[in-house]
Amino acid sequence: MTKNILVALPLTDELQTRLRAAVPSFAYRFTTLETATLEEILWADAILGNVPVELIRQNDHLEWFQSNFAGPDPYLAPGVLPPDCAVTNATGAYGLAISEWMLGMWLALIKDLLLYRDRQTARRWDPITRPVRSIAGARVLCVGMGDIGSSFARRAHALGAEVVGVRRHAADCPPYCLRVVGTDKLDEELPTADLIALSLPGTPETDHLFNAARLAKCKPGAILLNVGRGTAVDSDALAAAIQNGTLYGAALDVTDPEPLPPEHPLWGLETVLITPHISGRFSLPRTLENIVGIFAHNLRRYAAGQTLDNQMSRTTHYVSADTPGQRLVCEP
Fold it and tell me: pTM higher than 0.70 for the full model?
């Protein structure tokens, strides 16, 4: 059996060889997200990489689409992919990179590191007199306990934080959490959380989950991190909550809208850190290696006619028990 495999990611020769070796009988073409052509996309039976939606929707025989993201929302919309096309994501690839971004931002905020950077730029040698905080003993609320949320929860626990997980439904509690509750218990947990870490997909249920009313339930002085989808947070309400002192600050790698307009008040708040959706890109080489590993694993299953792992539900936008296959983990 021969299948045409299009890979639209910036792979090294070594990674290309690794993919070819997974199933040598397949035909492979390698391109990038920016240079992929319609001819290449129409040639493919399977595609790795988030090629333009307007091009991929023209392939009516595509059998498998492997996203290079954990949340490929535009590709799950009706009419983009053939109804029988399997959709797999990169769950398992980004936990390391994004959880370390989250730790770095959290430390920068609680230790005033960015404020000291501002003083360095101004050549000022004077201390900030307010007290700083510690990770040890802090209560962390991880809203979303997939690969990214769980990776961050493990790291926060290792540094001495108390971690509570929030999932769509209550689940067994891993050793690095105090408990794992369903979203129906979210409001009960917010008043004790020093840090709220969001790693949620973009679904109707998560849209503006953190609106003005919910932000008002947070512990005074809490910090919010968001690395999932910007739509989970009402940006105007978040800015107001920080300005009025309900929250201390926030670190955002995603915003709503995205990019955040230059006139938005969040830009001007000294306890808000904003990055342009880069926490999970390929600046950490391990991330791209993880994606290739996931794809190679599924290539072998594809060739054998087996169920693919990391399959996404087009209705829930999750990889979970109600989708075929298993969820892969790329880090210990």
Answer: yes
